[in-house]
Write a structure and sequence with these properties.
globular, 2 domains, about 270 residues
Length: about 270
Amino acid sequence: MNRLEAIQDRRSTRRFTPQPLTLEQLVAVHNVLRGIPALYDGHDMRAVVIEDGECVRSVMSGFVGSYGKPSAPHFVLVTAAEKPGWLENVGFAIEHAVLDMTAMGIATCWIGGQATREVFEVADPDIPADHTPVVVIAFGSAKTGGLLHLPRTGRKTLEEIAPDGVGDFGEALAAARLAPSAGNTQPTRFFAGSGLVDVYASFRTPLIYRARADHLQLMNQVDIGIALAHISIVEKACGREVLIAPGDAPERPELHYMTTVRHATQELA
């Protein structure tokens, strides 16, 4: 399985077996995290594997949103220095790692609500002073015995996330539609033109998340990076290089402009 196939196959897993992964699998996870691409240059991000999951769970709160404390045997703790685009960069980079782990048969779950300094400092006391905890990735073997090839429920339609059409990015935006997001809010909106697609965010907070609206908006910026990772992976698989950078884009009611994806002038060989 490759990343493209993993986009289709991955399902978030919240129930894990207590057995740790093999040493070979853990080494592979370490290697994956060392090789992930960045969305933007000049961002300082850190992803640390915590092999002893109990030391993380022992300081986690009892609930993650409406879900119970994850039972995973291992975690990845992600921190980053704050600067424009830092959260999108985390989502883009770590989703590549998550998909690589999926391709290896490892179950994963993105967790934003447990990314607190208390949790991180207990498990990883060497956090750089200028870094902020961003997200936790729980990983291990799924309790159900593998990947769940089940329909994804509650996803917005392609017409909802790309209301003016998909332009030259049909396959890529279909993959972006499958990207995981906090509370399945799917904040990303796409407006395609000739050889490009402008990316916006819809920061609307469902009633159930009103008490943590600010945190949800931060996580939604991570979600946008995840969707951009899916676009980049699909376009490269189709032999096209993309450039992702903010540019001039029109203002749109109730939407926040984030960045633009452009086709490079020459296709990949």
